[in-house]
Amino acid sequence: MTNLAADAQGATGLAGSAWLLLALPTLGAIVLLVGGRRTNKWGHILGSATVLGTFVYGLALFFSTTGLDAYKRTQELHLFAWIPVNALKVDFGLRLDPLSLTFVLLITGVGALIHIYSVGYMSHDRDRRRFFAYLNLFVAAMLLLVLGNGFVTLYFGWEGVGLASYLLIGWYQDRPSAATAAKKAFLMNRVGDLGLAVAIFLMFANLGTTQYSEVFAKIGTLPSGTILAITLLLLLGACGKSGQFPLQSWLPDAMEGPTPVSALIHAATMVTAGVYLIARSNPIYDLTGDGRLIVTIIGTVTLLIGCIVGCAYDDIKKVLAYSTVSQIGYMILAVGLGPFGYALGIMHLLTHGFFKAGLFLGAGSVMHGMNDEVDMRKFGGLWRLMPITFVTFGLGYLALIGFPGLSGYFSKDAIIEAAFGQEGWRGWAFGGAALLGAGLTAFYMTRLVLMTFFGEKRWKDLKSADGKDFHPHESPKSMTIPMIILAIGSVGAGAFLSVGNRLVDWLEPSLGGLKESEHFVIPKGTVTILTIVLMLLGVGAAWLFVGRKPVPVTRPARVSFPVRAARADLYGNALNEALFARPGTWLTRALVFVDNKGVDGVVNGLAAMLGGTSGRLRRAQTGFVRSYALSMLGGSILVVAALLAVRFS
Amino acid sequence: MSGFFSQAQQLQAPDVAYQAVLPMLLVLGAACVSVLFEAFLPRERRWGWQVALTVVTLAGAAISLIVYGNDAPKAGVKTFSDVLTIDRPTLFLWGTLLLLAFGAVLLIADRSVEPGGAFVAQAAIRPGTLQDRVQAAKVGMQTEVFPLTLFALGGMMVFCAANDLLTMFVALEVLSLPLYLMAGLARRRRLLSQEAAVKYFLLGAFASAFFLYGIALLYGYAGSVKLADIATAAAGTNRSDTLLFAGMGLLVVGLLFKASVGPFHTWTPDVYQGSPTPVTAFMAACTKVAAFGGILRVLMGAFASTNWEWRGVLWGVAIASMAIGAVLGLTQTDVKRMIAYSSVAHAGFLLVGSIALTSKGVSGTLFYLLAYGLTTVATFGIVSLVRDADGEASHLSQWAGLAKRSPIVAGVFTFLLLALAGIPLTSGFVGKFVVFSAALQSGMAPLVVVALVFSAVAAFFYLRVIVLMYFSEPAADGPTVTVPGAFTTMAITIGALATLVLGVFPSFALDWAGAGGFTF
Fold it and tell me: Which residue of A has its CA nearest to B326?
């Protein structure tokens, strides 16, 4: 293991006040929530300023760390003893290392842009201040998740982002669909959280600690079965948070939230927490090949599901959501490759953070101009009317499908190559699936762009849901500027991070060095060419199926089985229902039965018995002094007799 | 020479550690002054003078207690020819008594809740006559209640400190006789009040007889009434154990009666219901403290060495008390009677701590007494506020929907009931916790399990009242909640605040309670 993280340095200097990273957004959330309506006027400014301030501080921290030697880049900041109970000692501390700092920059950078975007996007919402409070809460929790120096701190942040996500998905609480989606996200996340919690329990039970440094130092002493169990439970947690098979179906539904939320939480940051968890736990995953294989399989299955379902939807945000599911599948696949892929997964996570956030903001901009319509069949020909949105969205699109030179090309291509670097059938299976996914991605994204920005202006003869005509227009500056910045990132981030192995070297203290496979089932060059060819095929197919002919405004009902299956989310909901919901319902029904007949019976019986006894005994309280005196006398005789009996027995 | 000096010492009057007994002397002295007030002050000026005197006395006694307690010898001081022991538990009990008495005196002095106060204007008028109706509307009150309170309090203080059984008996009478009188002084429902007084007196006399007979037997056994001598005799003699255990049984019965431990509790519901509510508060809080102070001292001082023989019997008594209190409380319809049964159950819990016979048991019981007393004073303060045209509306059905009409009163009462039930974050929980853990440590696990079961049963009737207050529709002609005057407000505030503070930060009081053991 070339893990340098074991020699963590005490944090000094600028890093000594790293708690500010958490304090600023927390303060924002508290002020906005406690201040209530009084803060309505400047709430959004404060909310954006705290995140921007955190970003600037994070940047300073980042630059001060890049100047250090590699082995000094991991710093621990002990804040206070959090849970000092008997053998369970959990310290509240921060771990500042390249991995967490990378995430800090992503979260606060993209977060700040999306805060600014929301100022415009949410300007018509009466509760905009509360929205910013929740966003700040989210940023604080997410920073805690990535900065904590132990699994319990991570879990705290993990639940915090879950809460913020729940609150924000259900933002339009008057819509039943939003409330349902929020509940669904919350419940499915619970399934995953259970896994994470049990994994932490296992660590504590077997190692007596939950701090990263100690867990990673001692994990090798455990039997391999326990390690496998821990890795699989951590994976379950990751699947819940990151929308991976079989827990993927909450993520598309989460698009019921406002679009900036989809961009920040359900595309760029929170849903990547699962990838972070596995990458952070790399010393554990390094020890178990079987565990990593299962991670890889889950990632591969998910990336294909996401692509396939993405082809069938007409809702612009849902297509992007399934695209997110699929791209996180790529990341999980990458971290499943172990030392061959940890850094690649993180790199794809970063580039994806840029272009997916940009795509969501673009989709939000389109919706903003189209009376909140999300059905792409009602769009069409918008590129002239929304030039900035079109260009930024187009750049994000090219980055996502892996157009040579743009971000996605560098990060995704590297993952596909690494997948082909596995031995034997694994190389063929994972590599082939990843390659196929690239082609499908090109298809559904091209379809999306064609339906939205090109073709006839199908909205001309239609009315929106509230009965108004459509007047598509470009969005205000507060929305377009973040989109432009993200577009620049979509174009350049990939090259910037991968040229000269910048990111890989930077992350080495946290993740170990990136290994290069010895033998590839297909040569690397061929893989690159195949990827580009498949991408072009996907684009061409989309042109053939969608671009060439007019798009029907209502969606065709009579379609072939594969399309029907894709429209039904490949039966993901049915699977969840069968796996989790129905057994849960049966269990609760059985418990309710036992409770009603058994427990309640006993309780009610006891209560009736006590009440009856009480009623009968009450009659002894006659109100006559003589009977009181008699009872006292009886008691006294009993006491004395008992005392003597005990003594002389 | 030495012979001469020893003779001279024998002739001297007993040494008195005046500083140590100053609180007690202040209270008893003030009681005498208070009697003079009654004799020489004109009727209309008595109330003011009496209240001022009582409050100043209690404050002065408390200050002298604190001053002395700060640098009192840890081993304690014996004084008046070793008849009184001022050790750490005594100081804690005295402090508790003074604090609780202060709360009770505030309730007694209040004239805003009931115009003229809760006490009869002229006790000598026959109930139910025309004059009685006139007196009920009069503003004055029988201010003798103040000296009576002070005498009772003085008796209680002596009782806790008494180091021999005879002194204890005298103190018992000094504390009991004023209480019998006070129980009969209610302004309204005077027949009920007088009946309560007579019952209390008769049964109290009966219990005193047991107590005295017990002392006689023990004297026959040990040849002394000093606790330490009885302990020495019990530890190693071949005298008849029949005398010892019969004497102990009778003595303990007398004490258990005062502490209203079942099955010697029969007077409790009737007297609690009939007495004026401020007196009930005084009785419920202070008498319990004094009685358990006495029980702790007697058990630890005289009978610790024979505990294998008697502990099982007191297990039985504790279980009986908890069972009677918890089960009978379930069907009570009068709020004062319900609290009376609750106090019987609490007496059982306290007995569990008392028979642990360890320093933890002592400190736990002392803490429990302080916590329970403060909660009780506030509880009765609230009870006195809910009234209709006939005085206090103590029937539970009249409390239905109280939260809608008076959310603050209902909220405070809920909190106090939760404390009585022993819910965390209240002093009741901490009290039960320390008492039960002390009992566990001295190997009484089965008893603790039984106690937990009965605290669950008892919680039911507290919760019933809460449900009644919050989830029932208020009756159309229901009672009104009087806005309390400064005195009652203060008493309730002190009690409720202390219940909260002792529940959240109990450690300082636990430290005081555990500062030292008994000295004999």
Answer: A614
Compute the nearest-CA separation of B103 from chain A (Å). 30
Query: Which one of B245, B252, B333, B344 would you mutate to disrupt binding with A, by most A Cβ within 10 Å of its Cβ?
Result: B245
Q: How many CB atoms lie within 10 A of CB A544?
A: 10
User: Which tokens hold the place of B140?
Assistant: 């004055």
Show the tokens assigned to B463: 């919760």
Supply B16's token pair: 């008195």
Cβ atoms of A381 and A481 closer than 8 Å: no
Whole-number Cα distances in Å, A203 to A88, A217, B227, B307, B454:
12, 12, 58, 49, 40
Q: Quick check: helix, strand or coil at residue A76?
A: strand
ipTM of predicted assembly, 2 dp: 0.89
Report domain extents, chain A.
342-555, 576-648
Percentage of chain B lying above the pLDDT 70 cut: 98
How buried is B363 (Cβ within 10 angstroms: 0-12 exposed, 13-18 middle, 19+ buried)?
buried
A360: left (phi over 0), alpha (psi -120 to 50) or beta: alpha
Report pLDDT for A290: 87
* Spatial CA neighbour of B117 closest among B147, B144, B98: B144
A642 contact residues in B (CB cutoff 8 A):
312-313, 316
Q: Which residue of A has its CA nearest to B267?
A: A628
Please check whether residue B411 is in contact with residue B419, taking contact to mean a CB–CB distance below 8 angstroms.
Answer: no
Per-residue pLDDT tens for B202-227?
999 999 999 999 999 999 999 999 99
Contact B263 A646 (CB under 8 A): no
Is the backbone peptide bond immediately before B263 cis, with ω within 30 degrees of 0? yes
How many Å is the maximal CA-CA distance in chain B? 88
Name the residue among B263, B264, B331 with its Cβ closest to that of A615.
Answer: B331
Closest CA to A269 of A341, A357, A160, A163: A357
One-letter amino acid identity for B367? F
Cβ atoms of A200 and A155 within 8 Å: the answer is: yes
H helices of A76-175, in order, are 98-121, 128-147, 151-169
Of A165-169, A325-329, B239-243, the range with the lowest mean pLDDT is B239-243
pTM of the full structure: 0.65
The alpha carbon of residue B474 and the mean position of all alpha carbons in its chain are separated, in whole angstroms, by 34
Q: Cβ A621–B266 below 8 Å, yes or no? A: yes
In sign, the C-alpha dihedral spanning A167, A172, A175, A181 is negative
Of the residues B180, B217, B330, the best mutation for testing chain A's interface (the one with the most A CB atoms within 10 Å of its CB) is B330
A588 touches chain B (CB under 8 A): no
Contact A51, A137 (CB under 8 A): no
CA distance B337 to B16: 43
Distant-in-sequence, close-in-space partners of B455: CB < 8 Å, separation ≥ 6? B322, B326, B345, B349, B421, B422, B432
The C-alpha atoms of residue B4 and residue B499 are separated, in whole angstroms, by 58
Q: How many CB atoms are closer than 10 A to CB A105?
A: 17
Contacts with B266 from chain A: Cβ below 8 Å: 621, 627-628, 631-632
* B264: nearest CB among A618, A621, A635: A635
Report the helix count and the strand count for chain B, using DSSP H and E.
22, 5
What radius of gyration, in Å, describes the C-alpha atoms of chain A? Answer: 29
Using CB atoms within 10 Å of the CB of residue A284, give its burial: 0 to 12 exposed, 13 to 18 middle, 19+ buried.
Answer: buried
What per-residue confidence (pLDDT) applies to B365?
95
Q: Give residue limits of the domains in chain B.
A: 15-513
Spatial separation of the C-alpha atoms in residues B169 and A523, rounded to whole Å: 105
Rounded Cα gap, residues B498 and B492, in angstroms: 10
Kindly report whether the peptide bond that precedes residue A246 is cis, defined as omega within 30 degrees of 0. Answer: yes
Structure tokens at B158: 């002596």
Alpha carbon of A617 to those of A479, A622, B322, B334: distances in Å?
77, 10, 14, 16
